[in-house]
Amino acid sequence: MGSSRRPEVSVIVPAFNEADNIVPLLDELAAKLDSSYEVVVVDDGSTDQTYANAVQARGTRPSVRVVRHAANQGKTAAILTGLSAARGNIISVFDADMQFMPDDIVVQVQRLRDGADIVTGWKQGRYEKRFVSGVYNWLARVMFGLRVHDINALKTFRREVLEGMSLRRDWHRYIVPLAAARGFRVAEVPVTLRPRLHGVPKYSGKMRILIGLFDLVAVAFQVTFMRKPMLYFGFLGAGAFGCGLVVGIVAVVLRILGHGFRPMLYLVVLLVLAGIVLFAAGFLGESLAGMSDRLDRVERLLSAESPRDRSREEEPEVVD
Question: pTM above 0.70?
Answer without folding.
Answer: yes
